[in-house]
Amino acid sequence: MRIIERLSVRSVVVVVLVLGGLGLAILDKDFRPLFGDLAKVGIGGYLGQLVPKQRE
Fold first, then answer.
1. Is residue 30 classed exposed, middle or buried when 0-12, 13-18 and 19+ CB atoms within 10 A define those classes?
2. Which residues contact 12 (CB under 8 A, 6 or more apart)?
3. Quick one: which H or E segment has residue 41?
4. Which of 8, 15, 25, 26 could make an SS bond with 32 (beta carbons 3.0 to 4.6 A apart)?
5. Of the candidates 41, 36, 44, 50, which has an alpha carbon nearest to the alpha carbon of residue 8?
6. pTM, full prediction
7. C-alpha to C-alpha distances, 43 to 1, 27, 30, nearest whole angstrom
8. 24 with 34: CB under 8 angstroms?
9. Does 19 fall in a domain?
């Protein structure tokens, strides 16, 4: 199976968000906590979408 076939848009967005935040945190030392929070929100939102909904 190819890796590209298994990727979803959500996965790509989270990876870009985390890598972008990491890159910006490396470049700008003053705003590292802000970039860390951005990555936490992205990962939390991704994991929240993976939780199945309860059926009524």
1. exposed
2. none
3. helix 32-50
4. 25
5. 50
6. 0.60
7. 25, 21, 22
8. no
9. yes
Q: Is the pLDDT of residue 51 over 80?
A: no
Q: Which domain holds residue 27?
A: 8-49
On whether residue 54 sits in a domain, the answer given is no
As for how many domains the chain has, the answer is 1
- What dihedral angle (degrees, nearest 10) is formed by the CA atoms of 10, 53, 45, 4? -20
CA quadruple 21, 42, 15, 17: dihedral positive or negative? negative
The angle subtended at Cα 44 by Cα 49 and Cα 38, nearest 5°, is: 130
Mean pLDDT of the chain: 77
CA quadruple 23, 28, 34, 40: dihedral, nearest 10: 20
Residue 2 lies in a domain: no
pLDDT of 35 over the 70 cut: yes
